[in-house]
Specification:
With 174 residues, the protein is mainly β. Helix content is 2%, strand content 45%. A hairpin with a 5-residue loop joins strand 1 and strand 2.
């Protein structure tokens, strides 16, 4: 930003890029595209470090672990894919939601993952084993977003309650 000059050009996706994020250390950029892939790029050179392929639907979101070793992608599918950020290989597939997943977030220590879904649940997963630790089912509406507090001890699930108040139609998650 100091010079205003372009550092690198990220060329490699075959469709538009929906989201791009820097890793916590700033050494990598992760992108998701409408071409059903995610890529990890070297920030300084623009070289592709990992090419993640395997979703059967458009990738709608991503999360990078605090230590930048794992990436989670979500799509219109009911599962999430956890990738090794260095190799681009799938490490775990998180299965358990009965409708599309809206958001995903790592805990600050990277040991847990929280997801929010159209199935009106939020789930907390073990980031190593991929097993569900808590299944928060008491919601009566779609859970659009969930996040951990900065200390990792609290959880914030966000429901779109105004949808009911103002008569907005419910959207299908898949």
């Amino acid at each position: 930003m100091e010079t205003g000059k372009q550092v690198s050009n990220l060329i490699g996706h075959t469709s538009y890029v929906a989201t791009a994020r820097f890793s916590g250390d700033g050494k990598s950029i992760v992108t998701i595209s409408n071409d059903l892939t995610a890529k990890v790029w070297e920030t300084e050179t623009g070289r592709v470090k990992a090419d993640m392929q395997g979703h059967g639907a458009t990738i709608r979101g991503l999360e990078i672990s605090p230590d930048a070793t794992k990436i989670i992608t979500i799509s219109g599918e009911k599962s999430l894919q956890v990738w090794d950020a260095l190799t681009g290989k799938i490490v775990i597939i998180l299965k358990g939601h009965t409708d599309a997943v809206n958001s995903v977030c790592f805990s600050p220590d990277g040991k847990k993952i929280v997801t929010a879904s159209y199935d009106s649940t939020a789930k907390i997963w073990d980031a190593i084993s991929g097993k569900v630790i808590f299944d928060l089912k008491e919601h009566t509406d779609i859970v659009y977003f969930a996040a951990f507090s900065p200390d990792g001890k609290k959880l914030l699930p966000l429901l779109l309650i105004i949808r009911q108040k103002f008569g907005m139609p419910q959207q299908a998650g898949s």
